[in-house]
Amino acid sequence: MKGLILSLIFVFALTEAFSQCITAPRRRGCVPFSVKIDIVPGSACDSATQKRFNFGTVPPGFFIYDTFTYSTPGTYTFSFSANFSIGGQTLVFPGFFEALSLDPPVFSVLRCEGQQVRVRIDGGAYEQYVIDYGDGSPNDIINSPTVLGPLHTYANTQQRTIVVTGNYVPGNCGASSSRQVTPLGSISVPVITRLRNSQGKNTIDWSTQAGIPYVIYRDGLAIDTLTASSAQLSYTDAPPDGGLQSFCYQVASVDGCLALKNSNTVCSITALSVVAENDQNTIRWKSPATGISDLQLIRADIGNIFSSSTIPFPEIRTDTAVRCGAVYCYRLQGTGTVGSQTVTVLTDSICVTAVSVSTPEGIRKPWATFKSQQVELFWTLPTAVNGKFVLAQRTTNGGLSRSLTFPFADSAIDQSTLNQPARYCYQMIVQDTCGNLSATSRLVCPVYLFGTKETRTTTLLNWTSYEGFDTTGFEYTLEKLDGSGNIIEQTDLGNNTFSFLDEGIETRGQVLRFRVRVTHPDPQFPLVYSNLATFDQLSTLFVPSAFSPNGDGVNDEFFVQGRFVADFQLTVFNKYGEIVYRSNRFDERWDGKFNGKVLPSDTYVFYLEATDEIGTPIKQRGTVSIIK
Known about the structure:
- This protein is mostly beta strands.
- Helices cover 3% and strands 52% of the residues.
- The strands form 15 sheets. Strands 16, 17, 20, 26, 27, 29, 30 and 31 form an 8-stranded mixed β-sheet that branches.
- Strand 40 (475-481) and strand 41 (487-492) form a beta hairpin.
- The longest helix has 15 residues, at 2-16.
- Residues 1-18 have low confidence and may be disordered.
C-alpha cells in the first residue's frame, strides 16, 4: 500500500509539471497552420519512454512525429503519451490547437453627403478589422463586436478602393476584401415624374441617383425601400382597396447618415369608370388631390390616334358622339410641373361598347338595275349609323314575297334573280349592331321587259315602269343588241309608252335581243336598264327540185338557199346509191358533174343535215332532177 501511494504522488507531480515538460510555440493560427511539439530537455518527459503524439486527426492515433499541418479550420485536441516506469504506468497529457479560416470579411460602405463614408462590417469572425480608405490616410481599426466604423471624409468625389482586412487576435493572421466607392458630393431631391393607375395598382416613376436608397411613402406612411441602380426607378403599389380611392405618394432619398430629402407629392386619379347608356357614354372619375394642374380626358378613336380636351376637374363627362356597337376607349392624363420637370398622372384606358335603343336613320335614294341578267341594288347609307345588315323585302310580279339579308354596304346583288327575269320590287331596312331597325325605304323596282313572237316577222315587246326615284319624268329607250352586246338599233319611246311592235326580219342574227334604258333629266339619277329579253327567229332552207346544167346560163347549178344556217352537210346519190356530189359549204354550188363529166338526165336523191345559229338541227331528204 505504501508503494502504491508513492506511485500516485509521483504521477500527480508529473501532471502538475507537464507545462514544463513539453512546449508548443504556436497554439493558434490560420490554415494552413503548422505546429511543432518540443520536449523540454532534462524534464521528466525527456526521460520517459514510448513518447507518442496525437494531433486530433481523424482517424485518431498516436505517432512518433512531433510536427503537423492543419488544412481544415477547427479546434483540435492534442495528446502526448509517455511511459513512466513507476509501477508500469503510462500517462497521457492533453492540450489544444485552433486552426482558423481565411474567409474574406464582408462589408458595405455607407455614403453620406460631403464626401463622407462609413464602413459597416456585415460578416466575419475576426476580432479586429483594419480599414484602408485608399486615399493615403491612416487606417482605422474596429475591434469586434463593433460593426460600424467611424466617419471618413474624402477630399473629393474621385472613385476610391476601400480595403478591409480581418485579423485574429491572438493569431495575427487574416484575409482582406475590397470595394470601390464614389463619394457623394450631394444628394439631389427626387422628383416623381409619373403616376399611373392600372387595374387597381399605382405605379410611380421618379428620378434617382445610382446607389442611393429611396423610401416610398403612401399617404405619409413608409411602405417600402429601394436602392437605385439607374437614373430612373419605378415602384408598383397595390393599395388595400384596389385603387378605388386617390392615394398620395412621396419618395425620399436617404444617405448613409440617414439624412432624408423628400420628393414632391403626387396623388393618383382613381375610380375612372365608363358606362354605355342609350346613345351616349358617361365617364366618371375622382380627380387627384394634388400634384397636377391640368387634367385631360382622352378618347382613342382608332389605334393610337387620340382626341383630347382640357377639363377643369368636372369629374363627369358625357360623350354623345358615339355609334351603336362601336368600341370607345377613354383614359385620363394630368400634367404639372416641379421646377422644370413635367409630372404626368394617368390611368389605363377603359373601353365600352356603345349601346342604343333608338331607331337608326334609314336608307336614302335607292335605285335598281338589271346587269348580267340579275338585279343589282344601290342606295345611300346613313352616315351616323354603325350598321350590321341591310334587310330587304322583295316581291315578285306583285305577289310572292321574300326576305333578303345583305351586308352593310352601299350596294348588293340579288343573286336569286339570275336568269329569272320578273317584276321585282324592293324595300330596304337598316339593322344596326344593336339590333335596332330603321324605317323602311321607298319602293324600288327595275324595269321588267317581256314579249311574244307574234309572227315570223313581228315581235310584241312590253315593259313595266321604273319605280324608285324621288320624282317622275322617266324616259324610256328600246335598244336592240347584237350578240356582243353592242347597240345596233335604238328607239326613243318617251315617258309613258310601255309597249312596242318590232317588225321585219333581222338578218344580222337569228336571236333578237332587246333591253330598255331608263334616263331622267335629274343629273343625280343613274343610268339603269331592264333585263335582256331574247327572241328566236325561225331558220329557213330551200332546196330546188331540178336544174339544167347545159351551159345556157339559166338554172345551170344546183344550190341550197336559206337563213341562219350554221353547220351544213349535203350529199347527192344516183339511182345505184353511189355518191355523186358532197359539200359542207352552204354557199357552194354543184354544176351537175361527176368525175369531170356532166351526169345524164335522171332523178337523183339528196340528203341534207344542218344546224341553225341557235343549235336547232335540220334534216331533209328529197330528190333533184337533172334536165338537159
